[in-house]
Amino acid sequence: MSATERSSTQTSQGAAASVAIERLAKSFGNVEVISDLTVSFRAGAISVLLGASGCGKTTILRCIAGLEEPSAGAIRIHDRTVFSSHERINVPPERRNLGMVFQSYAIWPHMTVYENVALPLRAHGVPSAQARPRVLEVLRLVGLEGLEQRSATQLSGGQQQRVAIARCLVNQPELVLLDEPLSNLDAKLRVGMRTELRELQRRLNATMIFVTHDQEEAMSLADDIFLFRNGHLEQSGPGEALYRRPNTRYVAEFFGKANIFEAAARDAAGADELVPVRASAIIARGSFAGRAAAGRDVACMVRPEAWRIGLPDGAGLAGRIAEITLLGDRLELQVETEIGRQCVMVLGYAPVRVGEQITLSVAPEHVHFLPGE
User: Fold this and answer.
1) Counted domains in the chain
2) Which residues pair with 26 in a beta bridge?
3) For the chain, how long is the longest CA-to-CA vector?
4) pTM
5) Contacts of 176 (CB under 8 A, 6+ apart)
6) To which H or E segment does residue 36 belong?
7) pLDDT in tens, 147-174
8) Cα distance between residue 326 and residue 312, in whole Å
9) Last residue of a domain, one of 191, 225, 249
10) First to last CA, the chain
């Protein structure tokens, strides 16, 4: 190992890591998966890489882990360079002081819970007397205390997932990478494991980078979401920002359902009025200053839950209920209007029926104008 590589592997054990990626590129043959990506992930936070299959999120994770060698760029973990094409640095995965949980738990069936979790310590030559308290402590943290001698084949899916997480944490990594670790669990167990993982991260103040294609999973887990599309970062930030203030139509439609149509804001005696193109109805009245140029047609987004339903002869956009879908605690209405079909979400019970005439309006703060569209 070179002197540069030796210095690059030195780090304070247990320190919260920040990850910085600069101009990262990765190709497989003639197929470019990641192109000129520059992004950073906060220390002590859960950063979720989100996107459709094939967008490059798992490749990014594997490059950080050292399981894939980038074609170009640099990766730094806690100000320590682990990869640089320019400086010819490529620190091996085992020297990057990180832990990784895969989609398949990779639990050894012939080993006990204790033996599975202790395996990384044995591989690093940690004496049994020192390893035992660390293994027992991490098993306590993930809720497997008392199951040390149980065979891995006797565990439920959720318990196997906890074993994989415990094995990842036992070496006290400064960075934890998780590649769709909950995808093999049933829906109810996934929700529970999301909560447990979030609580564990807070207790440890760990830096985690989590890959998923599930929008709900991303929203419930993330401090920051990074939405990728075809190897490029489309938008990043807190989940609420991406949901309520998307930068593009793609982001708007990726998160839940979005009603997108053209409208114009016009001044009316000091109170702006928002009027959809191809309609004469005023759907919002308030201040749109700084968000939409007066009199100019712009693309705007209204989330389904933001629509307000009014009487058929009331003010707003006239429509007819075409479909009603019961979604447990809410109703989803498909409403035909002169600007196209609008999706409307109603919480709780509403005395509506298919074929009924209604009007739709929205509060101005719930209208988002899509930049550049």
Assistant:
1) 2
2) 34
3) 79
4) 0.85
5) 98, 99, 100, 101, 168, 169, 206, 207, 208, 209
6) strand 31-41
7) 889 987 788 888 888 888 889 888 888 8
8) 22
9) 249
10) 52
